[in-house]
Amino acid sequence: SSELIQDPAVSVALGQTVRITCQGDSLRSYYVSWYQQKPGQAPLVVIYGKNIRPSGIPDRFSGSSSGNTASLTITGAQAEDEADYYCNSRDNNGNHYVFGPGTKVIVL
Amino acid sequence: EVQLLESGGGLVQPGRSLRLSCSSSGFNFAGYALSWARQAPGRGLEWLGFIRTETYGGTEYAASVEGRFTISRDDSKGIAYLQMDSLRSEDTGVYFCAREIHAATTTWYYDLWGRGTLVTVSS
Fold first, then answer.
1. How close B45 comes to chain A (CA, Å)?
2. For residues A103 and A20, is the Cβ–Cβ distance under 8 A?
3. Residues pairing with B83 in the sheet
């Protein structure tokens, strides 16, 4: 089982805002990175560190963190944002990396 | 073109071994740590392990594969390897390699991924 907790699925109406969360004790010490994965494709980093978007990632993606919870927010969700989203950080002992179980974002 | 490409996947019987390769192009492979991750059919991503650069040395593995999987690298060829021994049916999945960027002690991310290679463990 993952030491990072994510909701299995969330839905959002087209153009609305959705927040995906990732919980874990290690998040008090480490930032998460967030990955978008569409069927049959490799993951793509969308946010890392303290809300840093890699080049080419739309500014509707943003990140935040408080205590043991990190969040990925999509402001004005588009149809192409429908995907699985995974957080990645350290495990509770800080010894290994770990992915969260993933959240499926459904755009209605 | 900057890319990673996994190879070596296929059908293998339980208990046997398989070696995957992660070939790089378009960047200084020696300057980056490399991670391996996998994804079982219909499941989420699972981090398997990583190898640091020659400068820092060393590897780390997930508990689920420690002792069975070994990661190595050949910087002269720009290739990382995942040696998988004593394979089990639950090792079936798509295996990805990914390049790590360490922006700070508490901040890292995987900025470049291969397309993955499918490993099927079945008799």
1. 6
2. yes
3. B19, B70
Phi, psi of A97 (to 5 degrees): -80, 160
Asked if A35 reaches chain B (Cβ–Cβ under 8 Å), the answer is yes
Q: Give the count of beta carbons closer than 10 Å to the beta carbon of residue B59.
A: 16
Rounded Cα distance, A71 and A76, in Å: 16
The pLDDT of residue A95? 75
The angle formed by the CA atoms of residues A60, B98 and A3, to the nearest 5 degrees, is: 75
On the CB side of B88, how many CA atoms lie within 13 Å of its CA? Answer: 7
Tokens linked to A76: 């004005």
Contact assessment for residue A68 and residue A28, using Cβ atoms and an 8 Å cutoff: yes
Q: CB of B34 within 8 A of CB of B50?
A: yes
Structural contact between residues B80 and B22, judged by C-beta atoms closer than 8 angstroms: yes
**Does the pLDDT value for residue A25 go beyond 60?**
yes
What average pLDDT does range B25-54 have in this prediction? 96
How far, in Å, CA of B66 to CA of B44, rounded? 20
* Surface of B (28-67) touching A: CB under 8 A: 35, 37, 44-47, 50, 60-63
